[in-house]
Amino acid sequence: xxxxxxxxxxxxxxxxxxxxxxxxxxxxxxxxxxxxxxxxxxxxxxxxxxxxxxxxxxxxxxxxxxxxxxxxxxxxxxxxxxxxxxxxxxxxxxxxxxxxxxxxxxxxxxxxxxxxxxxxxxxxxxxxxxxxxxxxxxxxxxxxxxxxxxxxxxxxxxxxxxxxxxxxxxxxxxxxxxxxxxxxxxxxxxxxxxxxxxxxxxxxxxxxxxxxxxxxxxxxxxxxxxxxxxxxxxxxxxxxxxxxxxxxxxxxxxxxxxxxxxxxxxxxxxxxxxxxxxxxxxxxxxxxxxxxxxxxxxxxxxxxx
Length: 305
What we know:
The chain is mainly beta.
């Protein structure tokens, strides 16, 4: 969802896990929604959940910690202009023996945010709650997802490094929808900066070498275009003034050799010339940037006669 306007109206760590309220279930199939997590994290910050409510107390510190957090197998999350990207998330939670992560009223998750923890610019989470498996009485390994829908969730400025945060909320049979919650019976553990996660705009690269066939020694013109996802328009757009290598692979060889390096135009287009020397494949290759992954065009064969 587009949340930039909503974030400004909220304060505290609660915004990291509760701006979206998708239908979800706890690990054992019991009903749960992320709005109850929002309420618990807000109460843990020492704030009243709702003005004029009869809620009392403050959640106690739950004995639980996160480790070995890995998002998308440690690789950048790459999203095109549209669609749905699902990035796997794995982590370990170490806790006291009286904490059951698989209980109906215990909620655990890892989410991503950009900006500061207390006032994030944007955040991402999974569509469903993770599944946790007990390794021992005090250790669980959990598997979840980060679900990204660029058209709904992202701005171009979001192509940067994000941070992972995690929480565990143990409701201890307290009704999270009651009008008069005794927060002192609810356990909360939340953690910031569990690791960096890079989010990138998917890239695309084309090439066309002509004329073909061509006589040996004649000039070959090689054109192409470097584009990347524009999350604000839902389309690909040219990537301007980027260094791109023109490479050649001789027929019968499996190795490309760089012929020259040129830069894309203001609209991402590429154009250069070379002399025809032998049958082979021309391609453009882009090394990538912090916001955009590397990409190489499929080779275009030229028959030299």
